[in-house]
Amino acid sequence: MGQKPTACLALADGTIFYGQGFGATGEVVAELVFNTAMTGYQEIMTDPSYAAQVVIFTFPHIGNTGITPEDDEAPDPVAAGIVVKWDPTEPSNWRATSDLADWMARRGRIGIGGVDTRRLTRAIRQQGAPHVVLAHDPAGNFDIAALVARARAWPGLVGMDLAREVSCAQSYRWDEGLWQWGQGFAPIEDQRPFRVVAVDYGAKRNILRSLAGSGAEVTVLPATATADEILAHDPEGVFLSNGPGDPAATGEYAVPMIQDLLERDLPIFGICLGHQMLALALGAKTVKMGHGHHGANHPVRDIETGKVEITSMNHGFAVDAQTLPEGVIETHVSLFDGSNCGLRVADRPVFSVQYHPEASPGPQDSAYLFERFAEAMAARRR
Length: 382
Prior knowledge:
- This protein is α/β, with parallel strands linked by helices.
- It has 2 domains: 7-153, 3-Layer(bba) Sandwich (Glucose Oxidase, domain 1), CATH 3.50.30; 163-381, Class I glutamine amidotransferase (GATase) domain (Rossmann fold).
- Helix content is 24%, strand content 30%.
- It is built from 10 helices and 19 strands.
- A 10-stranded mixed β-sheet has the order 8-12-11-13-14-19-18-17-15-16, with helices on both faces. A 7-stranded mixed beta barrel has the order 1-2-6-5-4-3-7.
- Helix 2 links the parallel strand 5 and strand 6 (110-113).
- Helix 8 (247-262) crosses helix 9 (273-282).
- The termini are far apart.
């Protein structure tokens, strides 16, 4: 006789997946997405861009590298839960300080193992990202009708501003450089060449490390910061971070601020949600994608050079390239579906990308963009 299921995943269309629960108990409602990365499950779970999402890992070996605080992209996991094919394995990693299941239990995140992740992924590719409830009860008692009803009643990410929820509450100075083998995170020098204000819509720590590594003295401000609050720090460049939710909803307060900054002679660099915020401020529109892009193997073509870069992506909304106004140039496109992945303003040091050049588990094909930002700030001084 098989094990009694201790977890279930209830989709809004009434489909139910059973498995073995791990991590925290209880239930959570969210959007279900899949991630194709083979490494970096801890970075994915702590990426604030995954707020209000349950993540399916298509790679079956999850848990094998354990958990180490050095790999956190935020103080706590942000993804609502995870779905895996096999139960998490015991860690085998000299850097590990705990295992995945215990860490999730302590941090209030639910997991389900023993699920046919290939079937789930195929359904999402064909039908789009569904609304789900993920439940874990060690006794295996589930009110299926209530779970499905809750999934159906959830409004979804369209119109949802989540940046406020994951942003910092007050400003702070970032003081950590990039990780180095055998040394940990590099200390940064007291005197940095450039003053940068990073607007935190859900910033990953390795973005801030990458900015510091390219010579920036980084001051982080909340998502709701005004142009006056940013300019009070006398920045030589402004960075717009990644983040979760509907860009149009966050744009209600972010777009006016960015438009004020665009009137100044300041280099501006955006990543992920920051890319979408910049596009909206320039007059473009964003659209909800069917299942989004989530993984570390996404090919992107630089239109201007023809170079193809393998990138890390995590987004469920995209900039509609057809709405980019005159003077705003599309610079990068996805080779998976042709969607927009980058832009720049003609004759100005203002640019952004949809993907993640800072991805700490890799790939790092696009890390040069941080140097491009530093070069733009250096050119402004000349």
